[in-house]
Amino acid sequence: MSETASNARGVLYIISCAASSATLVPILVKQAQAVEWEVCVITTPQGSKFIDVPLLEGLTGYPVRSEYKRPEEPDVLPRANAIVVFPATFNTINKWALGISDTLALGLLCEYTGLKMPIVTVPCFRTGGGLDGHPAFFRSLQMLREYGVCVLYEPEKYPPKNQVPPQVILEVLDETIKEHAKSRNRAEMDSY
Questions:
Q1: Phi and psi at residue 35, to the nearest 5°
Q2: Residue 40: burial class (beta carbons within 10 Å; 0-12, 13-18, 19+)
Q3: Disulfide-capable partner of 144 in 13, 27, 46, 149 (CB 3.0 to 4.6 Å)?
Q4: 104-114 per-position pLDDT tens digit
């Protein structure tokens, strides 16, 4: 566990994909730790080529995972209380929306979506490059929103790749957690 994390907020998984914006993940980790998150980083297999694994392991005190573990191996990461997917790629967004879990990162996203845990996703790729105009992308964003995922996609506000500043991501995460708490409280009241 990181020396700077007091676990006051719980455990935050940052899931990083294969995108140039992944170079900003250490900044997000540090800012999350500054507001008392204990942070673990998971990456897609291709995403590991876009991040500095030793740096992130040093910052978090946890291994950066990108592959499934063997069944007999112990879990090396604590369970998450919330997830931020940054940067999220076109591929990950579309697979996740369809429930495809062919990587550890997607498996965790599908699992935590099913558990209705707080998740914020930030798709990051070049505006006007074609992927942002593909119909599957918008359908997937809508599906994720319907599943309760907070999609932070405002490329006109954060051009050219929707590189939302870490502080904004964390503010949106706080709002998302509050909304999830309200929803759970309403559900509990309705069950009486």
A1: -105, 25
A2: buried
A3: 149
A4: 999 999 999 99
